[in-house]
Amino acid sequence: MNEQISMFSETQEVANDWKWSFKDYPQETNGLKVFSCFACGGGSTMGYKLVGCEVLGCCEIDPKINKVYVANHHPKYNYVEDIRDFNKRKDLSSELYDLDILDGSPPCSLFSTSGLREKGWGKKKKFREGQKEQTLDDLLFIFIDTVAKLKPKVAIMENVEGLIKGKAFKYVQEVYKRFNTIGYKVKHWLLKGEKMGVPQTRHRVFFVATKLDFDLNKINCHFNYSPIVFEEIKEGIGRPPSEKALLLLNEALPNEKLLDQAHIRLYGKKSWFNHCLVHEKNVMPTIPAGHDCLWRYEEKEHCSNEDIRNGSSFPRDYNFGKMDVAYICGMSVPPVMIKRLMTRLIESGLFDYKLKNEEL
Which domains does the chain have, with CATH numbers? Predict the structure, then answer.
C-alpha cells in the first residue's frame, strides 16, 4: 500500500461540505442502485445519495432507529429484522438481486479497542445494538452471506480500526477467505475522517469487494484534506455539567483528552473512559454512541447536539425524532466519508459498466 500511496498527489484539499441539507442532494441519480444493511440512522445512505446513487432501502434490527431512518430516507424496501432472518427470506424483490452496491456496517463494539474485544467474541449477549440476545463478532460473515445471496456487483463493508489490530486481524483474514470463496475479490483500507474533510477523528476500515473484472489496486484511497477544527463547527449551547463532572473537568490538565485519568486521580478507580475533552483548536475526537461523552474544554460544558451533528457531517435538517443525537451519530458512518470513498471508486472506473452504459 505504501508504494501505491507514493504515486498519488500530496496536495492538501479544503472541504466545507460537512455543512449541508437534504436539498443539496443531486437532482438526478447516476443510475447506481444501493441497498444498506445495519443501516442505523442512514449515515452511509446519505453519503451514497450525495454522489447521486439511488438507495432502494435497508435492513435494520432496531425498530426505534429504523423509525428515524424511515422518517429521513423514505426507503422503498424496509426490513426491520435481524440480518440472519433477512438472509432466509424468499420473498425479496428481483430489484434487490440486481444491485450495484450492497452496503453494510456490522456492529463493531466487540472490535473497538475500548470494548470487550476477545472477552466477548463468540458469546451471546443482549447488546444495545438491536436490543436482542445475539453474537456480534460473526456479523461480518453474516453480511458476506447476504452478499452471496443477493450477488451485487460491489459490496462495501465498514468497521472500526480495532478490527485490524492484534488478535482481531484473524477476522480480516477470514473476511478475505469468505469473499474469495463466493467469487469476489476484496481489498481493505484504513480511512481517517480528519483526512477526508470530516470534522472528527473517526478512523474506520473499509472493505471493497467485487465480482467484476476490475483491478482493485487502481483505487486511490489516499486522502489529504485540511483538518476541520472544532471551533469551525461549534454551534448551539451545551448543557452545564453536574458538580461531579465539573470537578473532573477542572482536574483534567489542559493537554488531556480523555477524562478517565482525572477520574483515577480524584476517585481512585477508572471510569469515564469514553469521555473526551474537545479543544477548539483540535479536530473533534471520534464521536461515541454514549450520551454526553464529549465536553467543550473552554466552556466546561457538554458538547451541544449541533456540535455532534456537525462533527458527524449529518445534514442540518436531519430529523432525530426522540432518539439521542449522539447515539444515532456515534453508531452511523459519517455521510462525507462515504461520499469521498464513492467519489474515488467512481473515478477509478469501478462503475464504468453502468456510468458509461456498457454491458456487464
Answer: 2-227+330-355 (3.40.50.150), 230-324 (no CATH)
